[in-house]
Each structure stands twice: as C-alpha cells, then as structure tokens.
Write a structure and sequence with these properties.
The protein has 152 residues and is of the alpha/beta class. The chain has a single domain, classed as Aldolase class I (TIM Barrel), CATH 3.20.20. The chain is built from six helices and eight strands. The protein has a four-stranded parallel β-sheet. The chain has a two-stranded antiparallel ribbon with strand order 5-6. Helix 2 runs parallel beside helix 4. The radius of gyration is 17 Å and the shape is globular.
C-alpha cells in the first residue's frame, strides 16, 4: 500500500539468493522491483566454504528466476584478501554480461569472530579501485556518492 500511495518509491530486498527460485514470482507480485544478492565468488567450492551451506547453482538459478519475472539484480560482493581477490575481474565481467549492478564491500576488520580472524582477509577497497582502474574507466567521475560506475 505504501508503494501505491507514493510513500515508498521502491521496495528492495537483500538476500543470500537461496530461495529466489521459489519466491521470485511472489516477490514481484507484492511490489519488489530490485533485489540485492550477496555473492562473493562464482567458484562453487569457495561459495560452499564461505556460506557454510550454499550451493552456487541454486543461487544462480534464483538470480535467473528473479530476472525472468522482471526484478533488477544487484550483486554485493565482499572483497576478501586471499579468498576472492583473483576472481573479482571475472565477477565484474559476469555481472556486465548478465546486466547486473555490482557493489564491492570491504570486510569489516573486527578481529576474531567465532574462530575466524577477519583481519587477515581485510582488503582495502582503495587497492581494489586501483586494480579496477587499470582495466576500466569511471563513467560518472562527478557523481557524489560512495558508489562508482565503471565502463570497459
């Protein structure tokens, strides 16, 4: 009702994507127009390791189901030193080919969390930006936003 009244301009959902195949139609029907999917790798083994549950094929099928009902897709990828730093160009290429927006996120360097030392995985986005700039140019250099758009 808030979408119909104009109180909300957009309703967006952030998800791990595991149930998108099942719920994409329903999400579109209730007014969701865009989804953000957390996806740090396109490698099935790494995906399973980092999610502790996941099947990459299930998430990719869900993303495809969401696209098929008209939902726009944005991928959120955490840049993890020593884990996915060599895959990020591939993720950019995949998102470009699929028509998805992509946002890279820094891991929060909070130290030991349940046996995982996230400090070792911290990779500053300034380093990632430099690597991306060597391959792509920014398409919106004057935009005042934390997000930057790149073009090949």
């Amino acid at each position: 009702r808030h979408l119909e009244s104009g109180a909300l301009r957009e309703l967006t959902l952030t998800t791990n994507g595991s149930q998108l195949t099942r719920f994409a139609d329903e999400l579109a029907a209730i007014g969701v127009r865009r989804i953000n999917v957390s996806l740090d790798t396109l490698d099935p083994d790494k995906f399973h390791r980092i999610t502790r549950w996941g099947r990459l094929d299930q998430v990719l099928e869900g993303i495809e189901a969401a696209k098929s009902v008209g939902l726009r897709v944005k991928i959120n990828a955490v840049a993890l030193k020593g884990f996915n730093e060599n895959e990020l160009f591939g993720l950019v290429d995949w998102c470009g080919a699929e028509g998805h927006d992509l946002t890279f996120i820094e891991v929060m360097p909070m130290g030991d969390l349940g046996g995982e030392d996230r400090l070792e995985q911290y990779w500053p986005l300034s380093d990632l930006r430099a690597r991306l700039a060597a391959r792509w140019r920014r398409s919106n250099p004057r935009r005042r936003s934390p997000a930057r758009r790149l073009r090949s």
